[in-house]
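Run: sequence + EPZ -> complex structure.
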Amino acid sequence: MSSIKVIGGGRLKGEIKIQGSKNAALPIIAATVLNRGITVLRNCPRILDVFHMINVLKETGCKADWEGNNLIVDTTDITSTKISEGSVQKMRSSILFLGALLGRSHEVSIAYPGGCSIGKRPIDYHLDSLKRMNVTQEFLGEDKSIIHCYTNKILGTDIFLKFPSVGATQNVILTAVLGEGVTRIFNAAREPEVYELCSFLIEAGARICGKGTAFIEIEGVKELHDVEFTLSPDRIVAGTYMAAVAAAGGDVILRDTPNRHVESVIRVMEKVGCRIKADDRHMRISCNKRPLPYKMLITQPYPGFPTDMQSQLMTVLSIADGKSTIIEEIFESRFQNVNELKKMGAKITIEENKSKAVISGVKHLEGAIVKAHDLRAGAALVIAGLIAEGETIIREATSIERGYEDICRDVNSLGANARYCSENIL
Ligand code: EPZ
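>> structure
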């Protein structure tokens, strides 16, 4: 387990190229098994979650190689449809192989993905939907923790999602693409990563309409074909560095930013005092004063303010000139960073069954030893270290590498002083 040491410093200046999208890469890597051939994914981020997903691919008998940031996947032969417990526990997005392997092989065995620090993260919407698509489900093992799904054929049908779940929407799409008939998803997730999965599948020969809307229709086809696809930049990584400028001040250029996908983040950062100029591919963000408070921020499904940006915004508001409120509507325990920020002098209280945080801004934070509970909370603590007085050590920082290629490289290119260090320095 590694740590990150950050020495608090001044304003940020310079430019960063935004890496490819983690949450687009993961479902698309699973989707490659739907084609019996070669897929090339360009601009693929070299992050732990992608490495885990590649390991799962290899468990099924597929091959994968890197050429720089291009991932070449060969899914000609599938020799196993069993996804090990270790793989799923390491990364819950392995659950996307549920739909992909059902679509390809009409059978899959996968361990129940556990919860994580941000919530229980059940998969009932996934399983209920697949049942309606003619998939039989058995729960095996002593503790019934292995889900064995199989079918003689996937039948298209109407799926009504109680909540616009990103993963459930993606699993239904992956199951339906090679099925028989038409599958219509009502209340589908509208996240850009769902849009991008549909774009990838359409380029590979799938018949999908309504991508990016709450109503998606998939007409099953016989097979897909090889495709080369370029992943969009990561909207949450872009938002993270926008929050760093809002907190530390400065004047930064973000290259290759998915500006259309961060409109809700742009609006909030402007409200807390940033000046933002964005064209279709780049962004210039500057801030030269203490952040302003934000009266009431509620995290919502896309296109609302993303839950994956909540921790980063909380760091910004922890030094704002006044009181702010954040309501976390998506995950039931995504305020783990509050205690870590309080170790640095932040004044935050949690109210109303833990979904509401009230932040009373302080003039500055103090460096401290803190812990990264999840990758976004960890990134938010790096931002806190940038603005704190003195030295901050972020323990269990490996979780940050799940989603950020090299956060120290990125913030140091803006003049910060951050470096990885081994856990045993403490
Ligand atoms: C995706 O997770 C993202 N992960 C998450 O990003 C993101 O926070 C989340 O969507 C919300 O935007 C990837 O794309 C790999 P959901 P997912 O299904 O699909 C409940 C990051 O930091 N729910 O939309 O798992 C669930 O508990 C990660 O990059 C059920 O109750 O999210 C949650 O409260 C963190 N039953 C809510 O819905 C289900 O069957 C949203 O979950 C499924 C979900």
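>> summary
The pocket of EPZ is lined by residues 22-23, 26, 93, 119, 121-126, 163, 165-168, 189, 193, 307-308, 330-331, 375-376, 403 (CB under 6 Å). The domain at 2-18+234-425 is CATH 3.65.10.10 (UDP-n-acetylglucosamine1-carboxyvinyl-transferase; Chain).
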